Amino acid sequence: MRLITHNMLSCNIKGVKNGFPLKIEAEKVIEKEVDFNPDFLRHMFAKIEWKALVEAARSMGYAELPEDSPDATVIESADETFLRKLHHALLELHLEEGALVCPETGRKFPVNKGIPNMLLHEDEVKQTVCIDLRKGNEPTRIRSPKDRVLMQDVCIDLSLQVP
Questions:
Q1: Which residues lie closer than 8 Å to 54 by C-beta, 6 or more apart?
Q2: Spans in the chain with pLDDT lower than 50
Q3: Could you give the angle at the alpha carbon of 134 between the alpha carbons of 130 and 140, nearest 5°?
Q4: Is the backbone of residue 114 left (phi > 0), alpha (psi -120 to 50) or beta?
Q5: From which domain of life does this come (predicted)?
Q6: Nearest to 4 by CA among 70, 75, 52, 37
Q7: Residue ranges matching CATH 2.20.25.10 in the chain
Q8: Do 123 and 133 contact (CB within 8 A), yes or no?
Q9: What percent of the chain lies above the pLDDT cut of 90?
Q10: Topology adopted by domain 3-120
């Protein structure tokens, strides 16, 4: 899993208000070379949560990024040295084995062969209300993602969230 992916993930357990950033517990980190594209990096910079990226990179043993986020105007004129460090952190570092940890609940999501398993247990899923339009039935409570998939052809998923 690349750090660019990690920077977009958050814990989605019901009741969790602050599920970002996920902490990284790295067991195996590998580096995979990727073509350098400065324009892509400049474009992605605005979408990156800088503190989360720096913390994630350091948890994987890479400490070359500055603690404070560079100004957006600096990125436009940034020298290649800085952009290469950003490129390495975002795209070339891969968490191959380990876990992502919810900062609020401590729930660990395993990462195996570079793939994070973010599936929730049944009791962690937000309930979804579906209505069977063909039969005009009362709303049906769907308690697991498996049930939801089975009913997709006959339901509209309203994804109601009760505060």
A1: 65, 66, 67
A2: 129-135, 142-163
A3: 25
A4: left
A5: Eukaryota
A6: 52
A7: 3-120
A8: no
A9: 58
A10: N-terminal domain of TfIIb (2.20.25)
